[in-house]
Structure formats: structure tokens, C-alpha cells
Amino acid sequence: MKNQMIMFGGLVIAALMFLVSCDKDTDPADRDLFVGTYEGTITFNDNERTIADEDGRVTVTKVGDSYTFVFGSGIPDLTGVRFESGDNNTYVSIGDGLTGITITASSLNMLVTNDRGTWTADCSR
User: Fold this and answer.
1) Which is nearest to 28 in space by CA: 73, 90, 72, 98?
2) How far is 120 from 125, CA to CA, in rounded Å?
3) C-alpha distances in angstroms, 113 versus 10, 29, 32, 47, 67?
4) DSSP secondary structure, 27-53, as one string
5) What is the pLDDT of residues 108-125, one digit of tens each?
6) What is the per-residue pLDDT across 42-89, written as a single tens digit (0 to 9) for each?
7) How far apart are CA 116 and CA 40, in angstroms?
8) Least crowded by CB within 10 Å, which of 6, 61, 93, 103?
9) Taking Cα atoms as reference points, which of 63, 44, 66, 64 lies closest to residue 53?
């Protein structure tokens, strides 16, 4: 019985953290745990195929200081992205092959080119 109460309490805390992290006014940089979905135009090109979706989605997750961008429409994900603070409460990506991403609480803009391909996003939430 005691183990069940501990497990239930843990689930309640995890659910509350998830709900707080999904608030549309939440800036991803302000949280160690963040999940948010941005919607808009997304594209990907790897010289063999081009994928474009004007009604695309990008789900952004942040754990600690590492971001993951999960794209819809069959576009490959970007993982292990790190950011530094920019102007006007924006955060700009840093690192080899992952520069060109700007994120705020309400917008995601991306132009990333590396050996895997080119990603673009012009999205909001």
C-alpha cells in the first residue's frame, strides 16, 4: 500500500510538471523541463528528397540544457541542440551544424544546414 501511494504521488508530480511546462506563455529557456508544439511552415532537403509542409508541427522538448526538435511530416529530428541568450528574450542555437535556430515562448525560426540536410521552420504557438 505504501509503495502504491509513493508511485501515485510521483505520477501526480510528473503530471503537474508536464502541464506547467506546456503553458503557451512559458519561455523554454526559463525551465529545465519543457515540452511545446510550434505550428507553421517546415521543410527538409537532403539532396535526394524535399519535404515541405505549410501546416507542419515541431514538438520541442528540453531536458536540462539540451533541446530536441521532433518534426512531423517525415522530417528527421534534431537532437542535442544547445542555446545561448540573444537579444529581445530570444535564444540562439550553438554548436557544429546546429546553428540557425531561434526560439522564444511564441516562435520558432530555423535554418539549419549540416551533412544530413537542410531544415527550415517558421512556426508559432
Assistant:
1) 90
2) 16
3) 40, 23, 27, 12, 17
4) -GGG-SEEEEEEEEEEEEE-SS-EEEE
5) 999 998 889 999 999 999
6) 999 999 999 999 999 999 999 988 889 999 999 999 998 887 776 655
7) 22
8) 6
9) 44
What CA–CA distance (Å, rounded) separates 118 from 125? 22
Say which amino acid occupies 34.
Answer: F
Residues 32/64, Cβ–Cβ less than 8 Å = yes
State how far the Cα of 60 lies from the Cα of 114, in Å rounded to an integer. Answer: 19
Q: What would the grid cell of residue 34 be? A: 519543457
Q: Is 104 exposed, middle or buried (0-12, 13-18, 19+ CB in 10 A)?
A: middle
Please state, in angstroms and rounded to a whole number, the distance separating the CA atoms of residues 56 and 67: 19
CATH topology of domain 2-124: PH-domain like (2.30.29)
C-alpha cell at position 72: 512531423
* Cell (9 digits) for 7: 508511485
